[in-house]
Amino acid sequence: MPPPNRGACTTYRRAKDEGYRARSAFKLMDLDDSYGLLRGARSVVDLCAAPGSWCQVLTQRCGAGCKIVAVDVQPMQPLAGVTILRGDITSTNTLEAVTRACAGRADLIVCDGAPEVSGLHDVDEHAHDALMYAYSLVCDKCLREGGSFVAKIFRSEGALLVDRLRCRFADVAVAKPPSSRDRSGEAFVVCRGFGGGAVDARAAPFLARGDLSGYVVVSS
Asked: Which positions are annotated as active-site residues?
C-alpha cells in the first residue's frame, strides 16, 4: 500500500477549515502569487468552474467590482457576485451565452478542468486537445487583447501545446503550483499578452499561409 499523501490531506483540511469548496482553490492562489494574474482584473471567465473553489478565490482577490462568469456542464451552487452558466463549452450556444454574459472582453480566462480519463493515452490526449481547442474559441470571443489565460495541462503533453499557445500569446509559461501534488502529472499553462483572434503568421507560416516549401516529395 502506498504511503498517504500528507500534503494532499493537509490542503484538504485547510480548504475545509477556511470554507473553500475544494482544495484546488490554493492552486489559483499560488499562481496569482507568482504571476499577479488577478491584480486589477475587472472581468474574469472561469471555465469548468464547478464546484466553484476558483470562483471563491476570484471574488476574494478581484474585489466587488469584478464581473465573474462561471461555466460548467455540471450544476454549481450559487455564489455571491458570480454569474453561473450551465452548459458545455464545446457547444456554440454555450459560447454565445458566455459572450453575452461578459458584456465585452474579459481580462482573464481560467480553467482547472480536464476531461474524464479513460486510461487510453491516445484517446485522453485527443479529448484534452479538443477541450483546449474549445478554450481557444472562448479566448477568441471573450478575451481582450493583452489579456491572460490559465489552464490545467498534463506535463506529458510536451512542448507542442506550448508552441501553439505562443502563436496567440506574447508570454507563455508552464507552472507547477506548490499546492499541486508532486505525484500528479498536472501543471498549469500561464499565458499573458493575448494577441487577438488571428494566428501570428510569423510564428506559424504553415497554418497561416499553407506554406509547403519545406516539404520534398519523394517518389517511390
From this structure: 152
CA 123 – CA 176 distance, rounded (Å): 24
Residue 16: CB atoms within 10 Å:
12
213 contact partners, CB below 8 Å, separation of at least 6: none
Query: What pLDDT, in 10s, does the model give residues 58-70?
Result: 999 998 889 999 9
Considering the domain 24-197 in this protein, what is its CATH number? 3.40.50.150
Note the pTM of the prediction, 2 decimals: 0.81
| Residues 194 and 149 sit within 8 Å (Cβ to Cβ) | yes
Contacts of 197 (CB under 8 A, 6+ apart): 140
Each residue's pLDDT tens digit, 170-220? 999 999 999 988 777 889 999 999 997 654 444 444 444 444 444 444 554
Domain boundary assignment for the chain: 24-197
Residue 171 CA to residue 166 CA, distance in Å, equals: 7
Among positive and negative, which fits the CA dihedral 164, 104, 81, 39? Answer: positive
